[in-house]
Amino acid sequence: xxxxxxxxxYWEAFGVPLLDxxxxxxxxxxxxxxxxxxxxxxxxxxxxxxxxxxxGFVLFLPPGEEIDRRTLFQLERAYDTLPKEFEGVRRERxxxxxxxxxxxxxxxxxxxxxCGSPDGILTTKLWLTLPEQSLAEAVNGEIFYDPSDTVxxxxxRLAYFPEDIRLKKLAGRLLLMHQAGLxxxxxxxxxxxxxxxxxxxxxxxSSAMAAVFLLNRRYRPFYKWTFRALRELPVLGDLADSFxxxxxxxxxxxxxxxxxxxMEDICALILGRIPEEILPRSAADKTDLESAAYAxxxxxxxxxxxxxxxxAGV
Length: 314
Description:
This protein is mainly alpha-helical. The chain folds into two domains: 3-157, 2-Layer Sandwich (Beta Polymerase, domain 2); 163-307. It contains 14 helices and six strands. The protein has helices at residues 3-19, 38-41, 69-80, 107-115, 124-129, 132-139, 150-157, 163-190, 194-215, 226-232, 240-248, 255-272, 289-297, 303-307, and strands spanning 30-33, 58-60, 85-86, 89-90, 103-105, 142-145. β3 and β4 (89-90) form a beta hairpin.
């Protein structure tokens, strides 16, 4: 059983009855499972159970409200006394390095720790600089219960980048793809530096994968789950094998021409999936990725954001 399903069943069995003990809070609390951990993304497996895998859920306090200490203590104790074992899985008393992942949490602290804002209202600077993996943790998983819709509303605000931010990031990734793959990779090889050439291939693959996530309007998760998430994407998710080839092969005389051809194919496919209203077909020439990057940047509506350095979002 996946961790998310385990959490939902545990909530239904023990969390719902717990609410009856707090009638004054019942309609203001929210519950679900989200945040750090493979189970919040649906990527958990048998190996994942060696740490932080347990029956439990997050019980969010009412956002922006002060709960008196006595009630808060009673609520935390009520959660702590729920059964420690469920469906053959035992809940251990442990706090991981990343902080507490289950139990009674302040939603303001939860969202602030991931996006720098307690209510999901972000400045342009935050949108540009926050790690995507943190934003992914803010909106992953599932909310089982939220009658006031307050936690769900914050998640909707953070669901994905505003369009101008997405375009800024996409422009930056296209430029890095050009620099690392189409320009620097062959030049570095000409200098005889195989290790540096592989770094260029890695940079190209990383930026190209980021571009694919941007085309799908989906946050790229923590790097160890990137390929899992990539293969699920409806737009160009089938490029995962090509990226794996670039990252896992060497740079010998026989492989280099193939890698260069793969890079060019990836560029053409990515440019071909950018809508014409953003990138006119006349600018979508796979041999001129740099011009395409600036063409995308020119489509940004906000003048101040458009005038920032093209790599400001990456």
